[in-house]
C-alpha cells in the first residue's frame, strides 16, 4: 500500500491504514512541530515505517523527534526499529510486555512454530509473517520513557492511559490545540486469541468510547477506520 499524509486538523496529519483487514496495517498520526514531529504509533513493520517516513518528507514536515505508542500490540510497534528518534513514549505496563516480546526469537520459522502450538494465534501471527520482508535488522523496541497515568509532552500533547479490554496499556493522545483525540484501539474487543467464548468477547467497549466522545473533540481517530467526527445533537 502506497499513500500520503493528509492534514486532518491543525498540526495533526494522518497516514491512512490499509482498509483490507487482513493486512492489519493501522493508520499512523503525525503531530507536526518545528522542534521535531511526534509520530503516534510506529507502523506494523519496518517497511510500513519507511512508507510513513517517505510521506513525511514529501509533505515537507519536520523529521520525527519521538514516537508515542498507543499500546504494545505488534501492528503499532514493530516499525519502531526503522525510526531514528530521541525517545519512545509508552505506558509502563506496555513497556514490560514489550521487553518480554523483545526477547523472543522472531522469524518466519518461529511464527509457524507458535501457530502449530496454538492455532488461535493464526490470524495475528500469519499477518505478522506477511508484513515482514526480512528479519536481519528487526528488533522489538520497548519505550525509553514511560508513564503511569498521564504525561504532558512538549508542544501541548497529552498522553493518557485509559486501559480497557483490548490492551492493558491502551493510551489516547490528545492534541487539544488541533481538536483531535487519537484513540489507538482502546475501545476495540480483545485480540482474537484472547477473546472469551461467546458474543461478549467480540463487543466494543461502549462505555469507554462514550466517555471519550463526551469530551467534545472535533475529530476522533481510531487506528483501523477513517477519522470521524461525533454526531451533532439534534
From TrEMBL:
One of its GO terms (molecular function) is hydrolase activity. It comes from the Bacteria. Pfam families: Lactamase_B. This is Glyoxylase-like metal-dependent hydrolase (Beta-lactamase superfamily II). Gene3D superfamilies: Ribonuclease Z/Hydroxyacylglutathione hydrolase-like (3.60.15.10). Residues 24-224 form the Metallo-beta-lactamase domain. The lineage of its organism: Bacteria, Bacillati, Actinomycetota, Actinomycetes, Propionibacteriales. Keywords: Hydrolase. SUPFAM superfamilies: Metallo-hydrolase/oxidoreductase.
Amino acid at each position: 500500500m502506497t499513500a500520503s499524509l493528509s492534514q486532518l486538523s491543525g498540526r495533526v496529519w494522518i497516514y491512512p491504514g490499509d482498509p483490507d483487514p487482513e493486512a492489519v496495517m493501522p493508520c499512523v498520526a503525525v503531530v507536526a512541530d518545528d522542534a521535531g514531529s511526534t509520530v503516534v504509533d510506529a507502523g506494523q513493520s519496518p517497511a510500513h515505517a519507511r512508507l510513513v517516513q517517505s510521506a513525511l518528507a514529501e509533505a515537507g514536515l519536520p523529521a520525527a523527534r519521538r514516537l508515542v505508542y498507543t499500546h504494545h500490540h505488534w501492528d503499532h510497534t514493530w516499525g519502531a526499529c526503522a525510526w531514528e528518534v530521541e525517545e519512545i513514549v509508552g505506558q509502563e505496563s506496555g513497556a514490560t510486555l514489550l521487553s518480554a516480546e523483545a526477547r523472543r526469537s522472531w522469524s518466519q520459522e518461529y511464527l509457524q512454530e507458535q501457530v502449530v502450538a496454538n492455532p488461535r494465534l493464526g490470524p495475528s501471527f500469519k499477518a505478522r509473517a506477511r508484513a515482514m520482508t526480512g528479519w536481519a535488522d528487526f528488533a522489538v523496541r520497548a519505550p525509553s520513557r514511560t508513564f503511569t497515568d498521564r504525561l504532558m509532552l512538549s508542544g501541548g500533547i497529552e498522553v493518557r492511559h485509559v486501559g480497557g479490554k483490548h490492551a492493558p496499556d491502551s493510551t489516547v493522545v490528545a492534541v487539544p490545540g488541533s481538536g483531535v483525540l487519537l484513540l489507538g484501539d482502546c475501545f476495540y474487543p480483545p485480540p482474537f486469541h484472547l477473546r472469551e467464548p461467546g458474543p461478549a468477547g467480540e463487543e466494543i467497549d461502549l462505555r469507554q468510547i462514550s466517555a471519550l466522545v463526551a469530551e467534545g473533540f472535533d475529530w476522533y481517530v481510531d487506528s483501523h477506520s477513517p477519522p470521524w467526527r461525533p454526531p451533532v445533537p439534534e
